[in-house]
Amino acid sequence: MKKVVKFGGSSLADAKQFKKVGDIVRADESRVYVVPSAPGKRFDGDTKVTDLLYRCYDLAKSGASFTDPFREICSRYNEIIRGLELDFSLDDEFAVIEEHLKTEPDSDYIASRGEYLNGRVMANYLGFEFIDPVTCIFFDEHGLLDEYKTKKAMKAKLMETPKAVVPGFYGCSHDGRVKTFSRGGSDVTGSIVAGAIRADVYENWTDVSGFLVADPRIVSEPAAIKTITYKELRELSYMGASVLHEDAIFPVRHEGIPINIKNTNCPDDTGTWIVESTCQKSGYVVTGIAGKKDFCAVLISKDMMNSEVGFCRKVLQAFEENGISIEHMPSGIDTMTVVVHETEFMDKEQRVVSAIHRMAEPDSIEIESDLALIAVVGRGMKSQRGTAGRIFSALAHAHVNVRMIDQGSSELNIIIGVANKDFENAIRAIYAIFVETQI
Ligand code: ASP
């Protein structure tokens, strides 16, 4: 049995958190590959080391002094080393980074040092080998992960290293430089490592005991999700639930490896399991509720639309020509609605409208703005009678007017459009009807 364990920034923010991580790794012999993030926030208002590094880069680039944030970074690591009572120093490493900042600052290289240094500390603390991801995570000339090359190199490296620390967040660009993933990218590194050795589990340790059914900023103390499928997760993250880095799913999903989200501060909690498919029923009919504000609905009407071959294509072409991506497209017999992001659409609005007129000759076009979309996601919904009915009666009782409904044929989710101002109320009403009533 082999497990890959990734620890987020809050799990490694100081020596106290490092010790918890050490206990977790040592408690299970199968936790053989460790992927650390950079030290995160220790308290509200604190700054993540990655953000301090970006600040150093910005200052260095503009020729200003970066001494203050750089000192802060060094002392964060020194405090951790001291707190762990390690006979080890990062002084030489700090000197290399400082020199780099002074001479040829490169944003990706600087940002990656948070994980690099934390990886060095972690390897020393656990007595594991250190593997620098520049030797085994590769990006192609378009800046995309070179999956084939990476998997081969990572596998070869891990085969000869029974226990290792692989820092998250970065790899090697096609021209041999350090390149980072987008923010939160240590999740992706963990997934690559797990995929390469076909781990039994990819444990992703954070500061919450798994994903929550709804956003805790909207619903107070929402229930946790025990098991979620990759598809459900995709729907929820697409609709704004901040969960894993989006690209962290693919490397493990290919290999059928489950992800277990766990809490470093409560290691005995089960957390959330993310799996390909499952016969485990959700605790509730819905698995999760998520949503986003600020969409626009473009309602296009034309008599006998449904018998006109190619009408939809012409309308969609008008959006495509203007580089606008489409979110949803509910349609009626003589109407179709195209839902788009307000910010993307606003500037190009009149160009799109005239293109639709030119290409599809509709009877009318109406635009509605300030629309929020809510996704109610659940693999259990398709086998439950009355799910949609309950959602809409809950919304009616909460005095929320439903402006749009879209349900895919997979019945994995129902998308509901409401006014921006009703967004929070609508989520609370849906949550209450499915979770608080416990049915
Ligand atoms: N340290 C990086 C960030 O703050 C990457 C990560 O934590 O996953 O985005």
Poorly predicted segments: none
Bound molecules: aspartic acid
> In the CATH scheme, what's the topology name of the largest domain?
Carbamate kinase
Beginning-to-end CA distance, first to last residue: 38 Å
Shape: globular
Provide the gyration radius in Å.
Answer: 25 Å
> What name goes with the CATH superfamily of the largest domain?
Acetylglutamate kinase-like
Count of β-strands = 16
- Strand composition percent: 15-25%
What does this structure look like?
By secondary structure, this protein is of the alpha/beta class. The chain folds into two domains: 3-199, 3-Layer(aba) Sandwich (Carbamate kinase); 288-436, VC0802-like. 38% of the residues lie in helices and 21% in strands. Strands 3-4-2-1-7-9-10-8 form an eight-stranded mixed sheet, with helices on both faces. The protein is globular, with a radius of gyration of 25 Å. The protein starts with a strand and ends with a helix. Bound molecules: aspartic acid. Aspartic acid (ASP) binds at residues 9, 37-38, 48, 50, 114, 168-169, 183-186.
